[in-house]
Specification:
By secondary structure, this protein is of the alpha/beta class. It is built from eight helices and five strands; from the N terminus they run ααβαβαβαβαβαα. 28% of the residues are buried.
Length: 216
């Protein structure tokens, strides 16, 4: 999805153009299933098990607690950068810290998050953008993470809103709510619902007329 025609890789960070560009449409009675279908069409199925990596900017940390906890409840293993892992643990989420790309491998060979992505050990990534900070380079780390996700076709989410949608989609897929219907079938259902609504309105109107009171 984020490869150019020449094959080079684009950063998956969502800019104004990407936010306003429609690529696919998913139809379903529920939002979660609709989102899951859109991801199947545009990128690849959302994972239903495995490991989720989380690294978010300070402004987003409070807002990711509930959706990440929900993923843990759904059976996912949660990995996070040190600061994010500490915050999640304080709120009852079992999150294991993992080394950043800029930190390099650990003294005992502990892999970085980019190495884990390359090894196929990460099923979903949440990485919200952050600016440069003193003593570190989260922007550069984020770029490396997102680039690795594109190269190895790992679903990558860069907004809290996207995470919330993905959680609903994963829940729908786990519950096996996937159904495939043609546009013609959807059109027939919509028309039937509209006709039923019109008929109901007409019945109510006739009933109201029948109970009218002549005040003359």
């Amino acid at each position: 999805r984020f490869h150019t025609l020449e094959g080079s890789v684009m950063d998956s960070l969502l800019g104004p153009e990407m936010r306003s560009t429609g690529e696919v449409m998913g139809l379903s009675p529920t939002f979660g299933m609709s989102y899951a279908k859109s991801q199947i069409a545009a990128h690849g199925s959302l994972p239903t098990e495995g490991t989720v990596f989380v690294s978010v900017a300070n402004r987003d940390k409070r807002n990711v607690i509930f959706p990440i906890k929900r993923l843990a409840d759904l059976g996912f293993t949660i990995l996070a950068t040190e600061g994010t892992a500490s915050m999640l643990s304080l709120h009852g989420v079992d999150a294991r810290p993992v080394r950043k790309h800029s930190e390099g491998s650990g003294p005992n060979g502990e892999p970085t998050i980019v190495e884990l992505i390359t090894q196929g050990k990460i099923g979903l990534i949440l990485n919200t953008p952050s600016g440069e900070t003193v003593g570190g380079s989260p922007r550069r780390d984020g770029y490396r993470i997102r680039t690795a996700s594109v190269l190895h076709r790992v679903p990558s989410i860069t907004t809290v809103q996207g995470l919330e949608a993905a959680v609903q989609g994963i829940e729908a897929v786990q519950l096996d709510q996937v159904d495939v219907r043609s546009l013609q079938e959807w059109a027939l259902d919509i028309r039937a619902a509209q006709e039923a609504g019109i008929a109901s309105t007409e019945r109510s109107s006739r009933q109201n007329e029948g109970h009218g009171v002549d005040l003359q």
